[in-house]
Protein: asparagine synthase (glutamine-hydrolyzing)
Amino acid sequence: MSAVCGIIHMDGKPVSLENGKAMIDKLDIYKLDSKDICFRNQVFFGCGIQYITIESEKEKLPLFDESTGLTITADAIIDNRTELFALLDISEEPNKCITDSELILLAYKKWGQDCPKFLLGDFAFAIWDEKKKKLFCARDHVGKRTFYYYYSNNIFAFCTVIKPLFVVYDKDVNLNERWVTDFLALQGVLHESECSETIYKDIYQLPPAYTITLDSEGIKKNQYWNPLKEVQPLRLNSDEEYDEAFKKVFFEAVHCRLRSSNEVGIMLSGGLDSGSVACIAANKLSQEGKKLKAFSSIPMLKYKDNLSKCYTADESDFIEAISNSVDNIDVTYCRSEGKHSLTNIESFINILEQPYKTIENLFWYNEIIETASKNGCKVLLDGQYGNCTISYGDFFIHALTLYREGRILTLLKEIRSYSKLKNIHPYIVSKAVTKMILPYKFRKAVSNKLNKNYDRFSKVPVNSQLAKKWNVEKRFDEENLNQRTQRYYDLYETHKQIVNPVAFSHIGTMETKLSLANGIVKRDPTRDKRVIEFCLSLPTEQFVRNGHERYLIRRSMEGILPDKVRLNRSTRGLQSADWIQRLIPEWEHIYDKLEACLSDSNINAYIDVDKLKKELSSIRDIPDEKKWYSIRMIIISFIFSYFLKDFYKYT
Structure:
C-alpha cells in the first residue's frame, strides 16, 4: 500500500518542484518503506510505499510509461490478479513479477475510464495522460483507501491524506462549518452525513466507487458501481446450492487477502464473522506451513461484570474454541491496561487529521494494530462488515419483509418458531411485529403528540443555533438521521444501508490512516465487492428461517467454525463494555480536564456549553454507566476542543 500525492497545473504552467517536495515530505509521519517522485513540467506525482506484499517490494512509483505518455501513482493492492492476467492476455512467467500498479496501468490502456470496474481490491490511484492533458483518478468500490483533492485556479492537487494539500492552498485554511455542525449533531460514531466534503473548507474526498476526470473541459465525477441497480436476485433450488455458492465467493474473498511479504494476522473476537474468517484463513495458511496470528481485545483485569446473561464482555472462551479448532492460530490477548477514551488524543488527531467519535474502542483498536505490526504482521484481517453481509439476519426485518410480500402464513409460522426459540410468548412477538407494520407517518404523528417537548439534540453537544443555521433538522429528516420516531426497514430497504457510501468512507478513513501510521494494512473479506453483491442477491429466508437468525453463516460454516461459536444463540459479545470503568481510577484528573475544556471560548460557537456543564456536574463524583451518553458527549467535546486548539495553533 502507499500514500500518494500530486499537483497538476491545468493551464500548462510548470509545477514548483519545491512545492512537490514539501508535499511528499509531509508524509514522513507515516511508516513508509520508500519514497519517490516524478516531475514533468506541469505535473508532479509522489508516492510513499509500504512493502505489504512481495509484489509491492518491486513497485517503482510513480511510474512513467514513455511509449504512451501515461504516468501513474497508486495506493493499491489488487486481489484478482490471476483474472486480470487472463483478461489482459499476460502470461504468468515465474521469474517476472508484475506489480499491482502495472496491472492498473495495463487495465487503463485496455478499458480506459471503465478500468475500475474490472479491478478487485483496495485502491486509489491517479493516471496522467501527457498527450491528451487529461487526469483520471479512482477510489475502490467500498472506499477502503482514501483520496482527497483540492481544485482552484487551474491547480488540482490530490493526496491519500489531507494536510499535504495545504502546501498548494492559495488562501487561508478554514474549517468547513457545515461538516463540523454535522459531526457534533450526529448520534453514534459517524463523523459525517455525506462523503464528498471534509472538515476543511475546499478540500474534498472522492466517494467510494467514484472516478474523477479532469481535462480542458473541467472536472467530472462518475459513479462506476451501484449494486442497488446492478445486482439481480439469485434463485437456486436448495440450501445446499446456496451454501456452495456462498462458500465459493467467501472463501475466495478470504484467500485472496492472504498475500503478505511477512506474517498474516487477524483481529479476532468470539463471534461468527471474524471467527469464520479466521478458520478459513488458518486452514489455507496451514497448507503453506504458515500460522495465523490472532489479536483479541478483552476487558481490563479489574473489570466488574454487571451485564445481563445475554451479553459477555470477555469472549476468550469462544476465542479459545476457535483457536483450538485448528492447530495454527496463535492468540495474543490485549487488555489495554491503563488506557481509556482520553489516551493518546493528540496522536490520534494528528494521524486522523480531524476530531473523532470512536471513543469507546479506538484505544484498544489501535493497540491491536500496533501489537500486530510489532509481531511482524503486514496484513491484519477482520470481519468488521460481517453483520451487514455474511452473518446478516434479523428476525424483525425478516418479519416485515414477509408481511410486505404478502406471505402472512409464513410470517405467523416464523413468529411461533421465534417465540419458541427465545422462550417469549407469541403475543409479545406479534405485538412488536405489529408496531413495525404500522405506517411510519401514523407512528410519527402519535409520537409527536405524546412527546411535544422532545429535543432531537439532547444527547449530542452541538450548539442549537449552529444546527439551525445549517438546517440540520430538515437535512437529517431527509437522510433518516437522529430519528425521533424509529423507521423500520424490510430486507430490500436495508440494502441501501448496507452499501451506504458514508459508512464505507467513514471506516475506510480510519483504517487507511491508522494503517499508514503502523506499517500494516487492514483487510476485510466481509466487505469484498463479490461478497456484498452475493448477499444482496439472496432472498430473506436465506438469512432467517424457522426463527433462526443469521441462518446462512451458521449453516454454511458447519464443520469449519466450531459449534460452540457457530450455534451460540444465547450470548453476544459486547466490545468495550469496560470503557467507562476504565475512567474511574483517573476520574478526578479527567473531570478537571473536561471542566477546563468547557471554559475554552473557542468552542462556544460550536457546542452547547451550558448543557454540557449541567451534564458534567451530574457525574462529579464517579462516572455512572447509566449516564454513558453524558460522558460520551462531554469527551467528544473535549476531543473537538483539543482539535480546535491544534488547528488555531498551526493556521
Remarks:
- The first helix runs from residue 17 to 25.
- The domain at 2-225 is CATH 3.60.20.10 (Glutamine Phosphoribosylpyrophosphate, subunit 1, domain 1).
- The chain has a mean pLDDT of 95.
- The chain is about 40% helix and 15% strand.
